[in-house]
Amino acid sequence: MTRLLILLLCVFSLGPSLLASGTPEEESPILALDQTPEHVGGFIGLGGLWQSGSFGVNCNCNLFTQGAGSAFSLGALYENHTKSELYWGVQAGFVYTSLDARYLVTEDTTLQSIDGKTSFRNIPVSFRNTSHVTISALSVHPYVKWMPLKPRVFLRMGVNASLIVSATKDFHKILLSSAVTLPNDDVVSIRLDRAAIEAAGYTLTGDNEVILQDGSMADHSSLVLNLTPALGYEMKVSKSMFLVPVVQYSYGLGALSTLDTDFRENYFQFLIEVHYAF
User: Fold this and answer.
1) Cα(125)–Cα(112) distance, rounded to whole angstroms?
2) What is the pLDDT of residues 1-59, one digit of tens each?
3) Nearest to 248 by CA among 93, 101, 143
4) For 115, which DSSP code?
5) Alpha carbon distance 89, 132 (integer Å)
6) Predicted confidence (pLDDT) per residue in 228-243, tens digit
7) Alpha-helix residue ranges (DSSP H) falling in 159-277
């Protein structure tokens, strides 16, 4: 009886050790992520841009519409992963957009002979009007992320606030017609008058293009907001590093110009984010 009691005591005393010596259960990446809820990192993004609304230049001419271009962004991020499916984060960085718009126009023009002795009024001549707009801004982008699936697919929604630090706008007029028919049925070649253009304070580039505006966009807004829905995927590449590709749409909520109140920029961007968990 004494030996049996000693044996039972040995079994109970060794039991926890025997249980502890078993093979530990492998830790899932989801659990590992929850144990390191804070992320820091950086991002870079590039995508296509298109214009909504219209904008004008310093001439009594048609407004520019349907422009297109590109958008570039670069910055840093902080993200907090809670133990729920909802996370929050904030990005801060630099945004640069470049937009080109153009249209064709036929204008009634006064033509003058080279010797200055003869002139013809209201002769239809074809031109192309072009404008290039660039925006440089510092941005802050708070967002909420929802990750309902175990494969690390997520939906994200945020509002990007951009403080415009620099904006430029130019306006070029390009002569397309090389010859016209006069009222007397004569066909004559035409070109821009360099002397008259330069006397008016403008710049002629080549033989058929004049720069009518080139400089800062004085009427730009100070602060612009964009709504930013996004879809992404988190890939764990090491114990503490994640590679996160994201497709993000940026919808302009505010006008870029204080004069052209419907002028906005919208764009899709493909972003690569690098997260470090700590």
Assistant:
1) 13
2) 444 333 333 433 444 443 344 444 444 444 444 445 799 999 999 999 999 999 999 88
3) 143
4) T
5) 34
6) 999 999 999 998 999 9
7) 194-199
